[in-house]
Amino acid sequence: MYDFAKWLLVPAMALLLPALAEASELTNETRYRVALAGLPIARADFKTEVKDKHYAITADINTAGLATLVARVSAQAKVSGSVGPERLEASRYTLYYKRNSKAHTYDVVYRDGNVTSTTTTPEPRRPDNWIPVTESDLRSVLDPISGLIFPGNANVCAQTLPIYDGETRMDLKLFPKGSRSFSTEGYRGDTVVCGVRFTPRSGYKKNRDDFAYLAKSDDMEIWFAKSDRLNVYAPVYITIPTKYGTVTVTAVKYGS
Question: What is the pLDDT of residues 132-184, one digit of tens each?
Fold first, then answer.
């Protein structure tokens, strides 16, 4: 199964962003819950700070429940950049990711939507069947934070999102699947439900089983809730099918 902590960073950090759109100075803390086949496997804590149209988001993610018996996974991330008129514009993204005793740090620098540098420490040893990330793969890409935030007038489920997470370049193609009701602290109402087709482009081992399984599935979904006050859409619920069961990512608090 694709390591949940790296997947979690995309929607979980994005959940914080509606509060940033009009803020001049803000500090916000949010909690997130992850489950596999209904059993809790992870928890996450996020802190967002905004001042003078600049933002910094820090995240702390850890395995929980029975997942700790299989592998102890933790991730600490920090993203910084500027608050644009419609979306956040990341300038730097770092992720420290540890699985049991093995740890890696990913460091990505962005400028105008293009990656200007990307490093992994320690330098990984790639297998012969590794599909390398090319220079063209790193042009006009979205970081794993602002890629899932849309202005309030957007056709949310008519998007193809070119995501780069410091290692893997992937496309997330959204398509409409109707609406669902959702309730959590800070939000009660309808959501826009998008199906997601996952296509890995580069930065992964060829014939990777979990990627192949997800790429063949139409069961991945993201539910977007609209913040009327700030006029943006952000994710509140995600389902990710795996061979071991469905991973669900649920916002336990929405907004500031």
Answer: 999 999 998 887 777 777 777 889 999 899 999 899 999 999 999 999 999 98
Measured between alpha carbons, how far apart are the two ends of the chain, in Å? 33
The tally of domains found in the chain comes to 1
Q: Rounded to whole angstroms, how far apart are CA atoms 173 and 11? A: 15
Rounded to the nearest 10 degrees, how much is the dihedral formed by the CA atoms of 197, 16, 37, 211? 30
CA gap 184, 210 in Å, rounded:
31
Q: Which amino acid does the sequence have at 19?
A: A
Q: What is the phi/psi pair of residue 79, to 5°?
A: -130, 135
Q: State which residues form the domain around 130.
A: 4-251
The position carrying tokens 């609406």 is 179
SS3 139: coil
What pTM did the predictor assign? Answer: 0.82
Residue 256 is assigned to a structural domain of this protein = no
186 φ, ψ to 5°? Answer: 95, -10
